[in-house]
Design goal:
The chain is α/β, with parallel strands linked by helices and about 260 residues long. It has eleven helices and nine strands. The protein has helices spanning about 30-40, 65-70, 75-90, 110-115, 140-150, 150-160, 165-175, 185-195, 200-215, 220-235, 235-245; strands spanning about 5-10, 10-15, 50-55, 95-100, 105, 120, 125-130, 165, 180. Strands 1-2-3-4-6-9 form a six-stranded mixed beta sheet, with helices on both faces. The longest helix has 18 residues, at about 75-90. The chain starts with a strand and ends in a 10-residue tail after the last helix. The chain binds ligand T3D. Ligand T3D binds near residues 25, 67 and 75.
Amino acid sequence: MPSILFEIKNTIAHITLNRPDKYNAFNREMALLFQDKLDECKSKEIRCVYLTGAGKAFSAGQDLAEVADPNGPKITHILSEHYNPIVRKIRKLSKPVVAAVNGVAAGAGANIAICCDIVVATESATFIQAFSKIGLIPDSGGTFFLPRLIGLQKALALTMLGDKVTATEAEQMGMLYKVFADDVFKEQSFKIAETLSQMPTKALHYTKQALNQAFISGFEEQLHDEELLQERASRTQDYKEGVLAFLEKRKPNFKGE
Ligand code: T3D
């Protein structure tokens, strides 16, 4: 079986991390294949990406057997060639990426999850900044996203102590959007992807761009960018359709154009 499953259904790309016996830990092959699939998601026919893990885990992060192998990739390559490109591709993708965290998310697995646009988790999932437990620092964008999501104090505590947090605790801290009971998780998390896939895709892209920048730009710069991006959104067919549908008191039919 390939280490990444990829399927397009009704404009939604389903990406499944697929090394279930290794808790979907990333080796080089899986990291590179994941990047290829994220590139395929640039295709116009795809309007939303739904990312999840096969089996019990979302992902246990780096495959530790691979790094222990003297012939395995070196740590600098692991970051520059595996994880950093993945995080960049997710943040730059012009459509929403939903992380459906179906089980434990540890190390790079946790940080790839939280860099996605909408993060939801099943109630029994857990999040672990496992890096300190093996003498590393958080990577895969974790030092950028985590303090911005949950605040500096909690980010320092979780990354230093390597504590396991439940999905509910993670939600309360602001690390993720929603937690669903295990028996409805698949259906409810997928519903979010379905909703997004029928929304004005370009406006969602510009929203993502504006919020990506909000982390790093100042107030005036942000207002200026909102002007530019809003003007772009207003030139889309979906904007015209949205206004018309409102005036005609009907449901809009957005095409992502
Ligand atoms: O050099 C570098 O490492 C650079 C890259 C850094 C990025 C990182 O992601 S560093 C962090 C790496 N990840 C970890 O340290 C997490 C290691 N895993 C765990 O702590 C635990 O497995 C979990 C907390 C995730 C789950 O615990 P539990 O008790 O539910 O399951 P388990 O029995 O430990 O694991 C189940 C199987 O998955 C097991 O296989 P086995 O023994 O049944 O054949 C286990 O070995 C395998 N597994 C889990 N995590 C990894 C893994 N195999 C390889 N690499 C893993 N990371």
